[in-house]
Amino acid sequence: xxxxxxxxxEQRLRAxxxxxxxxxxxxxxxxxxxxxxxxxxxxxxxxxxSDVVLxxxxxxxxxxxxxxxxxxxxxxDKLPGRYGPYYxxxxxxxxxxxxxxxxxxxxxxxxxxxxxxxxxxxTQATTIILIGTAFGVARGDSTSASGxxxxxxxxxxxxxxxxxxxx
Length: 167
Description:
It contains four helices and five strands. The chain has helices spanning 5-20, 24-48, 59-71, 112-123, and strands at residues 52-56, 77-79, 86-92, 95-101, 127-130.
């Protein structure tokens, strides 16, 4: 009669313990922990998978997005991410939408540029929308509807974009 799956697993566990020079229980605990860690990481990655990432920088932007999400009934559940929390808004139309809050400033380690790259890699999103973020807008030097200064409700358009690999 061939060995049972449990017997095969026990043989492999003893062989791994011998190879490592460690007690079987120690190896069993290590393998179980690593397996559970891998399962948790996979579960978290599925939880933040999205098509669209909305990006806020200030606490006011973040709170207003949360308020708007709750008004339209999408929710705003906080989820763990590798580089910081995500907030799941759920489906808007056919798109899965999450939000992140970045630090002020584009090029700090947790600023918009780095976090957007990280979020795209972690969520596999195809669209990133920066809400209220004004890269390089100099107060008093910009032309806007509010008379030469970027103000609430003013729109902006990029003069250049950063291309990503293969796009």
